[in-house]
From TrEMBL, chains A, B, C, D:
Natural source organism: Hydrogenispora ethanolica
Protein name according to UniProt: Amidophosphoribosyltransferase
Known pathway: Purine metabolism; IMP biosynthesis via de novo pathway; N(1)-(5-phospho-D-ribosyl)glycinamide from 5-phospho-alpha-D-ribose 1-diphosphate: step 1/2
Binding site for Mg(2+): T305, D367, D368
PROSITE patterns recorded: GATASE_TYPE_2
Amino acid sequence: MAQPIEQADDFLWDEQPEEACGIFGVYSNDEDCNAAALTYLGLYALQHRGQESAGMVVSDGTHVSVHKNMGLVSNVFNRDILDGLRGRIGIGHVRYSTTGSSLLANAQPLLARCSKGMLAVAHNGNLVNTEDLRKELENGGSVFQTSTDTEVIMNLVARHSRENLADAILKAAQSLKGSYSLVIMSKDALIGLRDPYGVRPMCLGKLADAYILASESCAFSSIGARFIRDIQPGELVMIDRDGLRSYHLPPAPSQAICIFEYIYFARPDSNIDGLNVHMARKAMGRELAKLFQHEADVVIPVPDTGLSTAIGFAEASGIPYDIGLIKNTYVGRTFIQPNQALRDMGVRIKLNPVESVLQGKRVVIIDDTIVRGTTSGKIIHLLREAGAKEVHMCVSAPPITHPCYYGIDTSVRKELIASSHSVEEIRRFIGADSLNYLSLEALYRAVEPKEGLCVACFNGNYPITIPQEESRDKFLLEE
Amino acid sequence: MAQPIEQADDFLWDEQPEEACGIFGVYSNDEDCNAAALTYLGLYALQHRGQESAGMVVSDGTHVSVHKNMGLVSNVFNRDILDGLRGRIGIGHVRYSTTGSSLLANAQPLLARCSKGMLAVAHNGNLVNTEDLRKELENGGSVFQTSTDTEVIMNLVARHSRENLADAILKAAQSLKGSYSLVIMSKDALIGLRDPYGVRPMCLGKLADAYILASESCAFSSIGARFIRDIQPGELVMIDRDGLRSYHLPPAPSQAICIFEYIYFARPDSNIDGLNVHMARKAMGRELAKLFQHEADVVIPVPDTGLSTAIGFAEASGIPYDIGLIKNTYVGRTFIQPNQALRDMGVRIKLNPVESVLQGKRVVIIDDTIVRGTTSGKIIHLLREAGAKEVHMCVSAPPITHPCYYGIDTSVRKELIASSHSVEEIRRFIGADSLNYLSLEALYRAVEPKEGLCVACFNGNYPITIPQEESRDKFLLEE
Amino acid sequence: MAQPIEQADDFLWDEQPEEACGIFGVYSNDEDCNAAALTYLGLYALQHRGQESAGMVVSDGTHVSVHKNMGLVSNVFNRDILDGLRGRIGIGHVRYSTTGSSLLANAQPLLARCSKGMLAVAHNGNLVNTEDLRKELENGGSVFQTSTDTEVIMNLVARHSRENLADAILKAAQSLKGSYSLVIMSKDALIGLRDPYGVRPMCLGKLADAYILASESCAFSSIGARFIRDIQPGELVMIDRDGLRSYHLPPAPSQAICIFEYIYFARPDSNIDGLNVHMARKAMGRELAKLFQHEADVVIPVPDTGLSTAIGFAEASGIPYDIGLIKNTYVGRTFIQPNQALRDMGVRIKLNPVESVLQGKRVVIIDDTIVRGTTSGKIIHLLREAGAKEVHMCVSAPPITHPCYYGIDTSVRKELIASSHSVEEIRRFIGADSLNYLSLEALYRAVEPKEGLCVACFNGNYPITIPQEESRDKFLLEE
Amino acid sequence: MAQPIEQADDFLWDEQPEEACGIFGVYSNDEDCNAAALTYLGLYALQHRGQESAGMVVSDGTHVSVHKNMGLVSNVFNRDILDGLRGRIGIGHVRYSTTGSSLLANAQPLLARCSKGMLAVAHNGNLVNTEDLRKELENGGSVFQTSTDTEVIMNLVARHSRENLADAILKAAQSLKGSYSLVIMSKDALIGLRDPYGVRPMCLGKLADAYILASESCAFSSIGARFIRDIQPGELVMIDRDGLRSYHLPPAPSQAICIFEYIYFARPDSNIDGLNVHMARKAMGRELAKLFQHEADVVIPVPDTGLSTAIGFAEASGIPYDIGLIKNTYVGRTFIQPNQALRDMGVRIKLNPVESVLQGKRVVIIDDTIVRGTTSGKIIHLLREAGAKEVHMCVSAPPITHPCYYGIDTSVRKELIASSHSVEEIRRFIGADSLNYLSLEALYRAVEPKEGLCVACFNGNYPITIPQEESRDKFLLEE
């Protein structure tokens, strides 16, 4: 018999795996290049990767300025602040906390003075040996003012006081275990580095003479820059007066691009490692359609990530695509559930059914994941209330059975419904007439990866070894 | 020869007709009814109707409380504030300024003490004889502290010091010219009133024993209330201990529901005067498809209002629906254009093309309106840059040739490109391969109104006479 | 036997009678006159009269601007706000609430449009027939959005729609009962009005060609203006293009300048109705010295109001003046008592003894009033702890036995320790070795008033009749 | 001939030497001891030593919490924040920047994790070898995120990873050159350290079983604690479960307590190194009286620091003490000079004369220092305008001829009027009838120091060697 499933009260915002930071960098030799303006626009385009804090550091070659704060890009910066950030070189960061608590002190980029002069670092990813590294550095006299991986990386680089900057970073990187896409800035250079597994994306663009680095290519589009190429796993690019040079870390046994960038994280208009995200999702939808054994009248997405997938599903299945759920675009982090009694209407605040689309219909509903199952259950209940005759749930990923240690907040294992329940149990729990997960094979067919993918959350095959006791709660500076 | 068309720099946020207020009311006899919580959720669902300010007034039958401020519902209220708003009767308002300048003093509901005791008023619409009424009231000794229509209405009601509340409101209403949907609250009653033309919507719902009034039915859905019926044009509903009673103003010569509620304003899941908005838009899309004379590979919406229409178009035309433009959902009112040089990338910040969908394709793009034409031009340019071979623009409304005086900010006439240019001139200006507007007849076929519509912005037939010199700039209290 | 005396917990900030508003006005014909800057500086100098909110209205003759907010003058205004307040005519207000609750809506000046055009009013004082006037106006159709006397006055003026402004104000004034010093502003004129009893002060100054009105002459000093004369009780001054003209209300049976302006409210450098406040206090000190029957080593003031009095006392008695208590100048309204257990150290946070001055000494301590007696008790305890051998309390006023209805918050009668206890009982309660109050006769000798004083709080002879049920809690708009 | 003297426009707030930080610490073994509440009250009492930022760190023995921000103690903390700061051990800091720019990042205490576990440091003073130490630490791999001396001290301590905490601090201290009074906190201990010269004060108190450390004894008075003794120059006190233990740094060649603590910084009710500040100032006043050769009618202080001195002067000279200048207590850091034209009234905003005291009088005015001379000139002008017949300026310190490097912002040498002008030149510049400075000998007579004083600003004899190029602008992290 299946173990009882607990319903969490605060399901509304927690069901989705949380995003995990976006990074951006710009280097130009042109004094007139407004690095702050470009970084601002770039971060705007990457806002979906992190809404907790935003920040940037810029340099005019001599003088370094920084501004960061809690909140969205649009709240953190204003015209006066941007006008005060003068320079032709810049890096920026939007953050959702994966390690470190939610403090201003943890906002990135981190700027400091060290043996390399002024240095700024912004990080997307998650190290798995942070605590070991921090202990070792402390024994050598290092002082830590935040609980971020970024500060550990900064200290490792600073220790190599005799090497030049690129060498120091490459040496420091060899101590790092886990996922990391980094943009690093000195007074007169921009560096990009992607870990050898390539877990998190990073790509290179150009705008006139300026080089641009970004987590996703959608940031290029928003500033009118051209996409040049993806940064390769294990590649360090050093950009300065002498142009761009590439260095390489020792290769990893395999590559392991996070599959969730395609399924959920990235914006549909981004291309990651050669594949457009929207197209990948449509392909997932077509694969889902192949699996689908029922008759239905309409296919509807759970907005917004289900949209591309549902179009692919409709195309392949011939079942008409329609809008059955309206998302309230004003519901954000600051929404409060005003009182206990109204809690149970939860999902209604965020999603509302279009009755005239659903009434009397056999409905296929497309979502990207089921984490704990509670939100799916509520959505299906909503559709039935609105008159849906049948509700068939199709999920564009296999069951999530294992937690992620490389930067996605898929929580601890016991909260993952699929880690302890069969598909049939989950179907009954969420109240669907049928439930289809995409198989790992079908997912591979859809994505057609040129390189290896990290699919550890589906099968537990972690490409990078996880220390026994790694936990993000170990070191908390509280405020 | 066509007169030259000026390009405005600040086109990005100004092209769309601005929304014009949402109102909400709740009345329960149950002491445990949390009117503030319900109003909060209701305003959340109506947020698309106004983002400038939000406010509510509640009463426990004896004691009246108010809170309002500039900003979104989520910013104006927090748990402490909601906890302090105790009562079983409430009204709320979200506002985008149509008359009155953008001041806190102008935020609604307006709460005051007068011959009727404590009274609160919230208004959606726009009077056209405000200045005459205000002058007359001033001659009688009235004092005006804001520049809102609402304060004029409040003063008119207060003048009828001998009548009971319902009679006083009905008498006051007979002086009002223009559009008005009102929720009014005393310590122990809730009143709803819709002008005889029915320009702005209002509907009635029930949640357990509580009566609910709202601009749109989507607000019922978000609190789990049942839709009962639309408030009829010219109807006053008085809700108190004795239940709900209806009163009626003298009927207008015709009804004149604002067509733009269907085209642009209302949420797709709302039903207005018997018609679902999403379905109305799909029907507009089908009508547009009938007009479309070209071959094309893909039909894409301008998000978000084009979505429903594009699905209808795709359905009727057989041209596949796809996502060709991604909207950055984080771009809001606080976005700043960081510097002059980057201005020309304007629309890129808000919309980005999905190249893999557009490359080499003949594209049909669906939008709801063309006001000044500059944004349409930028979008078409964007699509071509992304590889579209042909771009056919289809608009789900006739050309806007006349300004609105009843609550929609379609600006002054000279800014309306269609008021002085032919369709062919506009097509050339925006750079489309073809341009199709929906005809007024086709629009009527799509909407199938049971009652009269106001389509004055398309043909200048204003159902309510406009005073010669009415202007919203006449009376400004500045801060 | 004496009835038990209750000790209030929140004694720290409540013992002192609260200040009651400062007003300021400026009129110049010179376009270059910066009325906002002058008003800002004038309000700064009057800040001691009210710290709850600050505001100003200015006019350039055509265009009227307003800014007001909760907080100190220095927090409410900044350079940008002052730059936006353009004009050569202005009025300003600092407020401590005497009527009306502590809301932004109640901040002054009140600006509105009425039959007189744009009108702004700022009020120092307290009407005693507010509720009657408001009821009467409501019956005539008036609407009240605040709970201030000022709004009642504005409505009364607005009712006289046929009269010119001066006449309308004079007619309105004849309905007012209570204390009022008013500055009123239209687009092109400045008016000052002082009630016939002259309860609150107001004086006239000149700076180059500009006329200045202010609650106290210290405001002239801070802007470099010359003192011209006091506004007479019952006088209205109208200042416009035609210069300054005086009008007079029917005279009151007597004049009744508030004695507390001399004892406690006003700044020592101000001259009120012909008498310098510092000199008046020194004279009170000399009178106190005549009464004092004991031997002592040192006379020390309770800062800050006791300073002038203590110098006078020292001079007349020959007992050396010294500083025995240091006031923490950073303790203000925002101070919080961090926890229950620390409450009992209360007065220590605000006042600290200078042990080396007090050790082994017979100390005379000079304070301006004893309201509830709790603070005096704590201070005396503090002095003894610091080594004082004897503590003799001298108070520069007679016992306060009656509440004030004209603008000073001396609270309700039962909280006034002297209303139910003898001097000997109070001496024992506060723990003094002796306690001397100034007699009413001695106070008159010190002040030597040319006109009548209001000393109702000492003897209950209220010059203006108090309606039976007047209470400031009657009408509260809550937020 | 004397070189021309420039008048600075922004003289108003800059004339006074700026205060230089206050520190506070508490240690109790009692779980119920509310370290945050005590630290809050202690910082309140020390607020005069720094108004730029405030902060505290507390520990319950296991868990460490921190809160700091820009602004006054009353603005930085509120009840919720204090409730969140749980613990029985705490340190706090109020800051006026002497090194490091005015940034939140530079606010203290600094909290970090290092080889000693969690460590927090708060510093009053100024190191003169900061840059050398930072360079050396950088070469060893240290990373600096602020521009404070405190971070350098923290890193030095962290380097001694093998020593216990007291030893590590003592070893680190031996590298420090300059002035430093430090409170340091680990999870379970409180440490106080005063530099061997004893430039800045620190004293020890007890409240029940709790040990208290504070910059000045006035902090004890405000929490009801007993003064135990001054911390000796070069003494480290370690307070933990085992009680209090003292350690000593190698003694300095001499002691050098900053004379300005007595003249200007400290609160009159504080006792520093055995001497009460108020008494010291009265003694300075008596010494000044001995020097004074003229006849006069009244002696008045420049508030607030001149008060004690003027009383001493009056006592010794027999010239009556009076209040001739009223200080506007609401003028603070946020005051803005509203426009250019009003600038020249400068000092009038802060100080206003009491004409009735000054009219026709020969006035002695007592101030603590003359830095640039501009403010003194304005004050004398004000007194003459108010009718003073003669103005004799007496200054309770010798001429300031040399800048301070140990924590007082007496600016660069060229701004010090006395560094390049004779007393007679200064007298003429400020427009006084006579000008008397206290001689160094008289000052020593007044203070009667048991140990050496630092009087370098008067005679250039710096007790601690100043590196050639030390400047506080070397290292700036900008925001």
